[in-house]
Design a protein that fits this description.
Blueprint (H helix, E strand, L loop, with lengths): L1 H13 L11 H9 L4 H16 L8 H21 L1 H12 L7 H18 L1 H11 L1 H19 L5 H25 L1 H4 L4 H29 L1 H20 L9 H4 L3 H8 L8 H13 L5 H14 L6 H22 L8 H17 L6 H20 L1 H9 L4 H30 L3 H7 L1 H10 L1 H46 L1
Helix pairs in contact: 4-9, 4-11, 4-12, 5-6, 5-16, 6-9, 6-21, 7-8, 7-9, 7-21, 8-9, 8-12, 11-12, 11-17, 11-19, 15-21, 15-23, 15-24, 16-21, 17-19, 18-19, 18-22, 18-23, 21-22
């Protein structure tokens, strides 16, 4: 019995070292596992192979170029329609209201504000769906919902129903289609991510340039309802574009864990541990209370100041061209700006956009208004194109989906509130001057607040570096102590044999 017991004990001892039966260093590994302090050393030795398995190399091209074009179409179709709402706004005033209604502009501006706001408001939910179901399913389903909402809006006869069909259903579908188009780019690009984001977000600039002229012709020839039906073609193509979002990043860490871990991944708290991200997530919404006001009310302001015969579409053309140009330029520049210093590009953008908004009422010559729109579009493109690269810098690739989602969700509040407030001021004061003056203040305040992020991130990096150095020193000291203990044990065994 004693021999059998010894044999079983020996077998039990061989179990911890069973992962490396062919190596001669098994006894040393067994001693490390029996020592509580040195158990970390074994995990450290076995961790590099696992890390190599998870390590992912971005293709930096290939099918990624097709995905880039599909994402570009998504940005163009979604935000091209939103940025051209100023023309739809004028048609909605004629279609659903009368000049006797003192609150007409306030009520009508809610259609565009709800639409833009819901795109961002749904983003936290979209990020959860993207993590659970992937970019392809989320984008295709969202585009289909957007198509239904836009088609339903073409049959609406009252402003209240338009709030639901266009402001909620269509916008929610656009939100589910839009965010995966940003996340999927991180599967294919890393070194060129800034440039690719610039190209993708330039899609909205290209559509903003072209759509106003198309919409003006359609609204005059076929009316508002048929114009909305023509826009449904963009959503059909968007459904097809979503099928190109083939995911590449491994999803095994989420699928292989317990239900509790999956729940924590659905509601990711890691992004809020970054102080820089917290400042960013609240600083940008603070800057956006006046951001969308020109896109909604500028067309009506021009019509009131310069007359209905003025070629007001040229202003959207100027914003669209320079916005597209800005995304290319600043997207490329962002690749050469290290770390969180990319935020300074957004700071400059907000300061210029704020000043240009205040300049709109001061422009009594149409040429001056064109110059303002050119500058506003250029730095609008800068602000948009570097959102995703900054998110990657602040939280990392693993958490970027929900980081972008929660940011866009917080952006929904100022997006919804800004234009109706401007419309209310116009109805009460008789002009848009005060509305544009006040619209320029939040971007300046938000830009100043964002200046804290690079300083906070630099301080955190210094702190992490010091902690890692101290940990390395502790580990090396423990290893020396362990080696010394092993030598002492060998000497004792030698003495006992002698």
């Amino acid at each position: 019995m004693t021999a059998e017991n010894k044999k079983t004990e020996a077998d039990d001892k061989e179990v911890p070292a069973g992962e490396m039966p062919s190596e001669q260093g098994v006894p040393a590994e067994e001693e490390k596992q029996e020592n509580g302090e040195c158990k970390l050393d074994v995990s450290e030795k076995t961790s590099p192979p696992a890390a190599k398995e998870v390590e992912f190399v971005h293709p930096e091209g290939g099918w990624g170029w097709v995905v880039m074009l599909a994402s570009m179409w998504c940005n163009g179709s979604v935000f091209g329609i939103q940025n051209s709402f100023g023309l739809l706004f004028v048609s909605l005033l004629k279609e659903f209201g009368s000049e006797d209604d003192q609150d007409l502009r306030f009520k009508t501006s809610w259609v565009g504000s709800l639409s833009m706001g819901m795109i961002f408001f749904c983003s936290p939910i979209v990020s959860i769906f993207t993590d659970l179901f992937g970019c392809r399913i989320t984008a295709v389903g969202g585009a289909a919902v957007g198509l239904v909402g836009l088609m339903a809006s073409s049959f609406v006869k009252t402003l209240g129903v338009m709030y639901f069909t266009y402001g909620i259903v269509f916008a929610c579908g656009c939100s589910f289609a839009y965010q995966p188009s940003l996340v999927i780019l991180g599967h294919y690009f890393k070194k060129r991510l800034g440039l690719v984001n610039g190209i993708v977000t330039a899609g909205s600039g290209i559509f903003t340039v072209s759509l106003p002229f198309v919409l003006s012709g359609l609204l005059e020839s076929v009316g508002l309802q048929n114009t909305l039906r023509v826009l449904c073609i963009l959503m059909v193509v968007l459904i097809l574009a979503g099928f190109t979002y083939k995911p590449l990043l491994p999803a095994s860490p989420v699928n292989s864990q317990t239900g509790g871990f999956r729940l924590s991944r659905v509601f990711n708290k890691n992004i809020w541990k970054s102080v820089g991200y917290r400042i960013w997530a609240f600083g940008i919404p603070a800057a956006l209370y006046g951001y969308y006001v020109p896109y909604v009310h500028l067309m009506n302001h021009v019509q009131e100041r310069f007359g209905p015969e003025t070629n007001k579409e040229i202003l959207l053309l100027c914003i669209g061209i320079t916005s597209c140009l800005g995304r290319f330029i600043f997207g490329s520049v962002a690749d050469f700006v290290k770390g969180a210093n990319k935020v300074f590009l957004q700071v400059i953008s907000f300061l210029v956009i704020g000043v240009m908004s205040m300049m709109i009422p001061l422009c009594h010559i149409f040429g001056g208004l064109i110059a303002v729109c050119l500058l506003m579009g250029l730095f609008d493109g800068c602000f948009i194109c570097i959102m995703a690269p900054i998110a990657f810098e602040l939280v990392g690739a693993k958490d970027v989906s929900q980081a972008i989602g929660f940011l866009l969700g917080l952006m929904s509040v100022p997006m919804v509130a800004g234009p109706p407030i401007a419309g209310f001021l116009r109805d009460k004061l008789g002009s848009y001057d005060m509305a544009f003056y006040l619209a320029g203040i939040p971007p300046i305040i938000g830009g100043i607040l964002l200046c804290l992020i690079p300083w906070v991130e630099a301080r955190n990096k210094r702190k992490q570096k010091q902690e890692s150095l101290s940990k390395e020193q502790d580990v090396s000291q423990k290893m020396l102590e362990h080696e010394k203990a092993q030598e002492d044990a060998k000497n004792k065994i030698g003495d006992s044999v002698l």
